[in-house]
């Protein structure tokens, strides 16, 4: 028993009743289902009803000939296997049939052995094709059911990818992807700390040299930037190696991380550095100054009688003044200097590479500037500032204590003053 033929269905269209009945018997012995029709009209009707795997048809028939019927069938399914039987070996009919990409023709009278051999080879292809399609569907189903995006690629073209990946890239399938993006590497935007490359080798090298938890790529889509965690495995095929790239969208996570990092280092009200960030910068500057014997000054600034401001104008106005003061200081210090909110209405300024003469000048300018501002378009405040330069035998605490003392002195000496200690 022919196992390939056993799995397929056939539509046999032939107007000659004797021929039809004779072959129907033969076919029924070998095939799963056989439908027979006596002309093109009936043939087409049965085709639509049963969608057989193979159509065998005579050419010359009443009502609708074999070629007309085949044309209509091909419009329904361009991949449909069609085999013609014909007595007119050299005729136009045959040529037209071949034009239609029929899968072949057999001359009449058809030898049963030849017919079975021809059908077996067609059936083999059809079954393999069906099996491949089934496997592809299973694979696609598996890929689409993953929470992460998966791409099967040799880095040149995409063999398979999950629907979620194509959706992200706004393409229908792998063919449209390669038309739009050429290859997979072009979609990974060059970004600091993110993996990108122009060749497969470079990309894999970078990937392998990046610690597991930092294997991140970014994909830019218009103004939208996606951050994705990547993991790559390889599959060795017959002649080439395929890579399974798995991408997890960590954009939101990344944004939250950046936000959390920002919140951890910035003051909620004024937006300038907070005390934690000040400590971090201060530690570095202190060490640097010590190691390279470079001048370093710090200043502590405190709003005068701020309690009265709050009491008179209200807390909201007080907040507004704090914000405007912070912005003003930030705008009026050098890029290399650091200003932070020390707490309440106190601010601290780190001036690297600055000796006491220069830092006093900076503070005087700030003090004068502040006293001339209309805060919230209405209110005037003054500030007292203590300033000091780092000394050779200073500890961090000693250095900070001295600036605090300077500020205390400025307050005692009547406020709206800069005092050096
Ligand atoms: P001095 O000149 O001696 O510094 O007097 P002062 O009133 O500024 O100092 P004091 O330490 O007595 O009061 C500080 C005030 O700063 C009290 C507090 O309500 C106010 N303050 C601290 N943080 C904030 C804030 O975030 N918003 C507002 N609106 N006020 C604040
Ligand atoms: Mg104060
Ligand atoms: Mg104070």
Describe the protein's architecture and organization.
This protein has 421 residues and is an alpha/beta fold. It has three domains: 5-124, Rossmann fold, CATH 3.40.50; 147-249, Beta-Lactamase (2-Layer Sandwich), CATH 3.30.450; 266-420, Alpha-Beta Plaits, CATH 3.30.70.270. It is 46% helix and 22% strand. The protein is built from 14 helices and 15 strands. The protein has helices at 17-30, 40-50, 66-76, 92-99, 112-144, 163-168, 174-181, 200-209, 251-265, 275-292, 306-313, 315-331, 356-371, 396-412, and strands spanning 9-13, 33-37, 54-58, 81-86, 105-107, 149-153, 158-161, 216-221, 224-236, 241-249, 296-303, 338-343, 346-352, 383-389, 418-420. It has a five-stranded parallel β-sheet with strand order 2-1-3-4-5, sandwiched between helices. Strand 9 (224-236) and strand 10 form a beta hairpin. It starts with 8 loop residues before the first strand and ends with a strand. The relative contact order is 0.06. The mean pLDDT is 91. Residues 302-304, 306, 345 line the site of one magnesium ion (MG).
